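Handout, page 2. Input:
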Amino acid sequence: MRERNGKLLRPFLTIGRDEIISYAGQHNLEWVEDESNADTRHSRNFLRQKIFPKLTQRFPAAAKSLAGAAARFAEAHDLLDDLARHDLGADADDFPLSLARLRTLDERRARNVLRFLLSRRGVRIPSESRLREGLRQMLEATADRHPSMEFDRHRLLRRRNWIYLESIEELPDSR
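Output:
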């Protein structure tokens, strides 16, 4: 979770819950607790309520270490996005994606470009194995073929020398 994501701000991410509750109590502040926070069917709540207390009991610095690792992952993600922008060049920051440009990249960087573009469109990224296979099909198919891959209500497909992303919901023949 990022501290800033577009218009959404989360200024208290680096402050622990206990510290916030203590401050609120000292200053007689009232707050509304989201009842979904108690539902351990949600993975984040299960981790927060069942796993992290045991983890920090055994490893007191675990929360601080995990927060530091998360910050480094976020930084690495930003660097990968910068690399994708560089690899795409100034004129290409969305689909359709030039097959010729993709072919200039090694496989890791080509997958990074696909992940970047899918993320920009709000598309859930497919598993790494599906992404590898989709990229392989796009790059290796002969010119008379039009490979496609469906995932998350979207279709990645190649027509001539371009890779397109289409919403399956918008396609008349998808029902």
